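Person: At home tonight, work slowly through the protein below, taking as long as you need, and write a paragraph about the fold.
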Amino acid sequence: MIYVNGNRLPKKLPPKVYIALNKPKGYICSSGEKESKSVMELFDDYLSGWGKLNPGLPKPRLFTVGRLDVATSGLIIVTNDGIYPYLNHAHNIAMRRYIATVEGTVGNRHLMAITKGTVVDGVHCTPDSVELLPRQPDMPRARLRIVIYALKRVRIGGIGGYRLPVDLGYMR
């Protein structure tokens, strides 16, 4: 028997769970803030029925792998596997695909400008590819598919701020 902080660990651990979620806008990827809806609320029904489907197994403690801000929708992974985020770190899976919805008409000159990239903190960064997606009848605005390779966050607000090396081998 193993005890942690006076609590006995269960004999059986829950199976590993991996859920691909299309995160809707308006939800946050953490459970700490009370003023916002958390994506974890989307799993309340799943977790409430856990005991019936998995008798004797403790409920999994789910968390998101990666984050999208509250105004962004898109793919995130929800799991109880603590090793999974490390196996899927940006150093191992560097390519990211995004769909950007933009105002106005997008022409070849706009695509060329995006493809040429921009300078961020003195480093020239360019996407791997930029593609204008076909118009959809239910979507009046233009959409772009942008493929980038992993970026390294160096500053959030006033925290951080060291400069990136000029030669970023994983950027194109």
